[in-house]
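Aim 2 progress update. The chain analyzed this quarter is reproduced below.
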Amino acid sequence: MWHEGRHRKLYCFALTLGYSRALYAEFTVSSGMMAFLRCHMNAFSDLGGVPEHLLHDNQKTVVHHHDPGGAHLWNARYLDFADHYGFVPRLCRPYRAQTKGKVESGIKYIRRNFWPSCPDVATLDSLNEALQHWLAEVANVRVHGTTHEVPRVRLAQEPLQAMTMAPYDLSMVSTRRSSKDGFISYGGNRYSVPAGQALSQLTVRETPQGRLEVYAGLECVARHELATGRHQSIVDPAHFDALWQALRERQNPEQILLAGPRLGPDVTEPDVEVRSLEFYEALIRGDA
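Predicted structure tokens:
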């Protein structure tokens, strides 16, 4: 799908409740942790609560790897999310497709029944609006082939926990080392930081609202809107004002003067006498 100025791969998140077979689904252009957790939160809100257990496939957003002895190395962020909402995560047994039949049946149902009737849409939001309408008007009000009842009717008896907790903070936190010219690299783009933070180890926080916050310790030293494309340089002019001031303070006046207007609008180049070519020819002949 063409999204935010470039072609993006489309993913489908699906959650099927075990008792009612009520289905929630959402399309995304990312398989990353933020999108994965956000889809869970949207599913809990749409279905009216949090299941006691969630059975997952073995994707990296849930589990890093299986120990030969049968233990799992869980993704710490996902365990924190599960603890926040009070459900117990469980894993399908590797190479045992029958343990994840409900979800796979939901994906097949979406592929075979939603896509053929999907309207021609231009944006991810409009595609998800069409999908939510189909879930409400078709998928969850049909007579289910396994239970022989309507999922939306059985949903009232589904043992779900009420969502009384505050929303989970979806912000993604990582670290970056700034370059000598005062930029950090994030998501295929470069973002400026204040001059004093060049060549520093910084903490970067990407918020669900599409902002990038850069911290030196506990102090937020830069804020940017996330770029929608790639290979861009996003600059806060105030960061370069600080750079010019820092250069003025660290260099002697002659060095600043020779650097010319590249150091800022207030710096001027020295006056240079302009002489004709005849002067230099006379100088070569020895007449000057």
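Residues 256-265 have pLDDT under 50 and may be disordered. The chain has two domains: 2-157, 172-250. These observations will guide the mutagenesis experiments scheduled for the next reporting period.
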